Amino acid sequence: MQENTLLRVKGLYTSFASDGRKDRATAVNGVDLTIPRRKTVGLVGESGCGKSVTALSIMGLLADNGRVDAGKALFNGEDLLALSDREMRKIRGNRISMIFQEPMTSLNPVLTVGRQISEALRLHSDISSREAKQKCIEILDKVGIPEPEKRFVCYPHQLSGGLRQRVMIGMAMVLKPDLLIADEPTTALDVSIEAQILRLMRGLQEEEGTSILMITHNLGVVAEICDEVYVMYAGEVVERADVFTLFRECAHPYTRGLMASLPRMRAKGEKLYNIRGTVPNLRAMPAGCRFSPRCDFACEKCRREKPPLEDLGNGHLCRCFFPEKGGDTL
Amino acid sequence: MSELLRAEHLVKEFPVRGGAVHAVSDVSFSIEKGETLGLVGESGCGKSTLGKLLLDLLPLTSGKVYFKEQDLSQIHGEEKRVMRRGMQMIFQDPYASLDPRMSVGQIIMEPLNAHRIGKNRRERADMARELISRVGLRPEFFIRYPHQFSGGQRQRIGIARALALNPELIICDEPVSALDVSIQAQILNLLGDLQKQLGLTYLFISHDLNVVRYLSDRVIVMFLGQICEMAGTEELYAHPRHPYTRFLLSSVPQPDPTLRNRERALLAGEASSPVDPPSGCRFHPRCPYADTVCRSEKPALRGTGDGHMCACHHPLEG
Amino acid sequence: MKSKKDVYSAEVAQEMLEAEAEIQTSEGVFKSILTMFRRNKAALLGLIVIVIILLMAFFAPVVCRWNPTEIRLSEIKKGPSAEHWFGTDELGRDVFARVVYGSRVSLMIGFVPSIISLVLGTLLGLAAGFLGKKVDAVIMRLADVVLAFPSLLLAMVVMYTLGTSILNLFIALSIIDWAGTARIVRAQTLSLKEKEFVEAARSMGVSRWKIVFRHILPNCLPNLIVLFTLNIPGSIMWESSLSFLGVGTQPPDSSWGLMVSQGKEFAYMCPWLILAPGLAILVTVMAFNFLGDGLRDAIDPYMKT
Predict the structure, then answer these.
(1) Are strands B302-303 and A236-242 parallel, antiparallel or unpaired?
(2) What pLDDT, on the 0 to 100 scale, is given for residue C300?
(3) Domain limits of chain A?
(4) Rounded distance, CA A302 to CA B260, Å?
(5) pTM of this prediction?
(6) Minimal Cα distance from C20: which residue of A?
(7) What is the CATH number of domain A5-226?
(8) Which of A230, B296, C37, C292 has the fewest CB atoms within 10 Å, measured from its CB?
(9) Residue of chain B whose alpha carbon sits nearest to that of C220
(10) Domains of chain C in sequence order
C-alpha cells in the first residue's frame, strides 16, 4: 500500500483573506486525498467547491491572500507543505507539473514555443541547448503536434487552442514528472479536440507511468479518463470511489443529484432533476452537513451534526448519515 | 405545424486583411411554430453569427430572413420594430448580458419602455414583477442589482427580459454553457416549462450535444459556416449520415465509464480556417472518406428520407 | 399575460421560497466607495482637506481678520506672527487673507475648466465611439493634435491670442483637458458597445440614443468621476504656471499662482510670500490626487465585472 501511494494529502485546510475583513474564508476544509502511482484520480465538483484550491495548495501556488492553515501533503513520503519556496521550485515542473484551463495565460506570449519548453528542460537538467532542442522536438512529436520542427519556432498565438494545450502538456511532460495536475484542461476546448487531448493524456500515462490528478466539473471527462474519483462539495470531500462504482452506485445525495441532472439520461419533455438552491457562501456555511439545505433527504440530525466520511466497503467513502447506493433513481 | 421563420441562402462574410472570414455560407432552413430547433457545431462554425443574423444584430451579406411569412429586409422603421418583438434572444454570458448599473426591474422594463407597452410606468412595473416570478425569482428582487445574484439567477433575469415582449421565437445562444451542472438543469427545466406554458419556439444554439439532444425536436449540425446535416433529434443521434456528425457524436465524453473504450471515429489533419475555406466539401481535408469529387464539388443538402437532410457526396449508411 | 395562477407552477413556487433565497453578498459601487474611505485613510484625509478648503473659500470674510486688499504701509514685509499668520507682503497686505481669498480664484479655475472639459470630452468621446468611423477619425485626430502639442505652450498661445482674462483662461485650460477625457470615454464606449448587454438592448429594439444614455454613459460615469477629481488639481497647476509666467490671472484678481509670481522678487528676504501660496497649491493638489486615487481603486475592481 505504502509504496503504491505517490501523494497523500492529509487534513488540508486552506483559507483566504479578503480586503477589509478580519475573518478568513475557508475554501478547503479538511481534505484527505490519496493518489496512487500510475493512476488517474479525478477531483470533481462545481465552481467554488475548492477543487482548484486544493491543487494549488499542494503545488504551493496559492495567491498572496491564500494560506494553508493545516495539513500535510506527503509526496514520496516528503511533506510538500513543509518545504521552503526554493525546495518547492525544484519539485515543481520537475517531479510535479501542472496544466491549466486556458493555455494562453500560462504560456509566455513573447517567447517561442520551443524556447519555453527547452528552458523548462534546462532549468531542471544539465544538458546543452542542442540536446534540449532535440528533446523538445521529440516531445512535441509525442504530444501529437504535426511538423514539430516548424512549430518549435512558433509563438503561442500562432497556434490553435488545441495545439496550445498540447504544447502545455508537452511542457508539463518533458521532464517525465511523477505527478501531473490537470486543472480543467479541456474545458475551453471543443469536444472533438477534448477527446483528442484526453486520449493523449491517457496514452502518455500508459507510456510514462505518470499519475494524474484530474480536476474537472465534467462528469463525462471523469468517466473517460479517471480511475478513482473524489467528489467535493463546499470545501469538503463528500464521496470517494473507483470510477465504475461511482457511476454505478454513487451514494451521496449530492453526487446522485449531479448524475441525475445530466441531460443525457433523460428523454425530451421529461424533467431533469435539479439540486435546488445554490452553493453556500464560504463565510456562511450551514451547520451540520453542508449539503443539508439543498438535500431532499435531510432531517434534523443532518442540520445539527456533521456526518463523518464513512467507508461503505471497498474504499467507497461517503459523507452522509443516510447513504443510499444506486445512482440516478432521483 | 406552421412555419414561423425561414432563412434563405444566408451569407455573412467579415472583411479582414487579404480576404474575408466566411462565417456563414449559404445557409437555409426553417423553424416550425412550437418546436425546438437545436443548432450545434464547434467554435468558429458560425452558429452564433447565424443567431445574430436572424435577429438583425449583424447585417446580412446576402440572403433573406422571413418571419411569419414577412421578408424582414422589406420592412423598416416602426413596422420592423413591431415585427421584431416576436423574436428575442437569451445570451450566453449571464455576467455580460445584464447592465451592471441597472436594477433588475429596470432591466426587465427596458423592452417594455422601448415599445411603450402598458399604459404607464406603474403598469410596466407590475408586468416586470410578474415576469420575475414567472422565471422563479422573488418579485422583491425588482430593486436589486445584477451583481447581487449568482450566475443561474442572472440567467433567469435574462430570460425574464426576453419574455417581456411576449415573443413567439426565442433564440437561445449557449444559455447554459457558463453554468454549473446543477444550475444548468434548473435553467433547462425552466426553459422547458416556459415553452409548455407559453407555446414558445426555440432556436437552441449550443456546442453541448447532450444538452441539445435533451431539448431539441430537430437538430442542425454546422461545420465551417455550412449546414452539414439536419434531422429529427432521435434520427440524427441514432443514425448520423454525415462523417462529421458521426465524429462529433463519438467525441462527446459520456458520463459512463463502461463506454470509455468504445469505438471512436477519427479525423485526419488540422482544423481548416474560415478565412480560406477548403474547396468543394469544406470537410474534405479532415474526412476519412474524401475522394476527388469531394475536393472539387460542393455537396448539396439532400434529403435521405424522413426529413433527414445531409450534405455529403458519400453519406454513411444509417 | 396569463393569470397569476398559471404563473406559479408548484415547482417554481417552491424554488422561489427556498432556492433563490440566498443572495450572494457583494458590494455596489457606492458602497465600495464608502468602504474605501474607511480603509484608505489618505483618500479620507484628501476629502476632509478639500471640504475644509472649500468651506474656507466660501466663508472667507468670516475666516480672515484682515481685508486682503487693504494696504497698510506700516506693516510692510512682516514675517509670520500671531497677528499675521502668514506674514504680510510688500504692500503690507495680510498674506493669510490673500491666500484664503486667492483660493476662490484658484478653485474656480480648478473646477470650471474641469467641468467644461468633462462635458465636452464626454460628448465628443461618445460621438467618436458610437457614430462610426468618419466622426471617430475627425475627433480623434483633433485630440491627437492637442495631446501632441506641449500643453503649456498651447495654453500660452491661446492666452496671447485671446488676451488675458479669466474667461480666456477657462477656454485655454478646457482645450488642454478635453482630449484626455474624450480618449478615455471613446475607448470605454468602444468596449461597452460590444458588451452583450448592449447587444441585448439592440435585440429588443431599444433606440440608439437610449443605448448611449442608459447603458454606455452610466457605465463610463465612475471613471469620469475619477478623471474629474484628477483634472481639478491639473487645472490648478496649469493656472499657477500660467500666472507665474504672466499670462494667467491678472491683478487686481489674485490666485495662488499669481501670488507666487509676485512674491518671487522678494523670495530671498521674505520666503513666506511664496511659501504660503506654494503650500496652499501643494496641499490642495495632493488632497485631490489622494481622493482621485482612492476613488479609482474603489471603482476599478467593480468595473471589471
Answers:
(1) unpaired
(2) 60
(3) 5-226, 251-318
(4) 36
(5) 0.82
(6) A277
(7) 3.40.50.300
(8) B296
(9) B101
(10) 40-304 (1.10.3720.10)
